[in-house]
Backbone:
């Protein structure tokens, strides 16, 4: 069921500018039925990389205003997947999760185990440019603290300042519950 939700999200993304250049092949070619949780995570990770890659491409090609407007639409914001964007100081530029509103600084945010997960994202962005971060936070759809796995990618915007941003998305391991859309 979790794979189906992600596949549905990615199928709807196929019509988005920026997504086409990252998607090679049909969803059925990319995701097969897998029984072990490790294989399921691996499959979800591959789809997550494609989703974040497409979001990064859209942000780079269209700029913040158009990309953020697109990220708030059902094409990009489908349960349980959504895009978040922050700078290297931990300031949220775009997020539909009301717990981390746009403009807030989450640099010192800790998960339920005391892990500075935003700082880890920033470190990954600075050193390798992309990677996965695992942490435990409240799932807005369930209200419960759950393990989450996010993929982040550095984007350098095509502006005179060559602004560097972190684009990411993630999934909750244990939840099939879709995220509740947050009105902007």
Residues:
């Amino acid at each position: 069921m979790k794979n189906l939700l992600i596949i549905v999200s990615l199928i709807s993304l196929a019509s988005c500018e920026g997504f086409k250049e990252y998607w090679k092949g049909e969803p059925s070619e990319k995701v097969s039925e897998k029984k072990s949780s490790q294989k399921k995570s691996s499959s979800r990770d591959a789809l997550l990389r494609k989703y974040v890659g497409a979001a990064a491409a859209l942000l780079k090609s269209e700029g913040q205003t158009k990309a953020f407007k697109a990220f708030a639409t059902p094409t990009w914001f489908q349960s349980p997947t959504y895009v978040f964007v922050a700078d290297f100081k931990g300031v949220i530029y775009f997020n539909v999760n009301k717990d981390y509103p746009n403009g807030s600084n989450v640099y010192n945010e800790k998960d339920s185990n005391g892990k500075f997960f935003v700082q880890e994202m920033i470190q990954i962005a600075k050193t390798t440019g992309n990677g996965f971060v695992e942490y435990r936070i409240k799932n807005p759809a369930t209200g419960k603290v759950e393990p989450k796995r996010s993929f982040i990618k550095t984007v350098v915007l095509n502006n005179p300042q060559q602004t560097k941003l972190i684009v990411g998305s993630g999934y909750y391991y244990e939840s099939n519950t879709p995220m509740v859309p947050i009105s902007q």
